Gfo/Idh/MocA family oxidoreductase
Amino acid sequence: MAKICILGGGFIGRFYAESLCGRRSKDSVTVVYSRKEATALRFAKDYNVPHYCTEMEDAIAHAESEFVVIALPNYLHEEAVMLCVKHKKAVLCTKPLGRTAEEALRMTLACEKAGIFAGYLEDLCYTPKFLKSVKSVEDGAIGRILWAKSRETHPGPHAEWFWDIEKAGGGAVLDLGCHCIEIARNFIGKDVLPVEVMCWADTQVKPIDAEDHAIGLVKYENGAIGQFEVSWTFRGGMDLRDEVMGTEGTIWVNSFLRTGFEMFTSGNSANYVAEKAETNVGWQFPVGDEAHELGYPTMFNDMFDAYENGTQPRETFYDGYVVNAIIDAAYKSARTKLWEPVQLPEWRGKRGLSKPSVYQSYDEKHWLIKEEILPNGDKKIILKDKESGAISEINQLAG
Ligand SMILES: NC(=O)c1ccc[n+]([C@@H]2O[C@H](COP(=O)([O-])OP(=O)(O)OC[C@H]3O[C@@H](n4cnc5c(N)ncnc54)[C@H](O)[C@@H]3O)[C@@H](O)[C@H]2O)c1
């Protein structure tokens, strides 16, 4: 049984508690920290937490804290991780790991040096649909991955610190792009080096210093491309979609806004619908078990199983650091309007990969471009001459 201390009694802290408690789980939240006593007390009451603290270090050092779950604003992640290092407590940190790769690398190396377990709470890499998709990719169902796109857009975050560039460390790219980038890395291969990034980012709607909308491309050493689309200005709820294209197939995943559950209400009993839903009247797209659809319970199971088995979880601090490095390059590219290299002073994956050849032999003289059955049943074979490069076609008549 894991004894869990949650730092932060806000939005994600409560989601985490809901995922950890009340599911006949053998794990329990034993300590909660919040700056304000009223928040800590409410949280303790709502989730039956026996101890609460209003000092962060007291919560971490508490005898009933075995795992520390960091659910604090981005600017407090490093401070909280370093306190876990000091008190030798296993630590699980929400996304993004750092505001920059420099912060994230310091956290990663400090935990490794201290020999403490560290897990990166990237929930969207644990949703049921995502895990099944990644397994299909790993089994070769869609061949070599060429392009992995992930989109997270919603009408903007729910707390003031997100909108303060100093505290948050960035805008939609850091807040939402961190999910999208790690999703694409999982599909393309976490050991494949991200080489360079091109990003457009702008502040189109909100009166803030950070970007509220961005699109980025991440080039990988094996020729694959990752794409992220993020926005804090999207209207209509929270849109979480992934698209993966391989040489042998395609995957489309819609994780939130269309899960197959649609409902119309006149507003007779207006209530909470789903995260970031903008209306509770008219046609609704609710999410059955929100915590589960977002991957939280599976994510915690993986973390605690890995700890007990002495292995690494699927998502580690090192992954969080690679994601931060890609984001740093994206911010630089948005300023310079150029492809910017991903700076990874610590890289533990493969090196020296190259794009596989596009040439597939049809016969001794030709490369195959494509084959297609036409509406009249004929088969067309489009070829390229190996010597002259001339393009030709063979038309095989139906029957
Ligand atoms: N899907 C996800 O994984 C997901 C979703 C939402 C948020 N998050 C992450 O969780 C973290 C917290 O976000 P949130 O949405 O819960 O924010 P929030 O503002 O709702 O909650 C943050 C908590 O930290 C407390 N806090 C704020 N400033 C503090 C300070 N100076 N010292 C101590 N405590 C302080 C707040 O009172 C609150 O209890 C962020 O890093 C965010 O990126 C992750």
User: Anything to note?
Assistant: The chain has a mean pLDDT of 96. The longest strand covers residues 145-153. The first helix runs from residue 11 to 20.
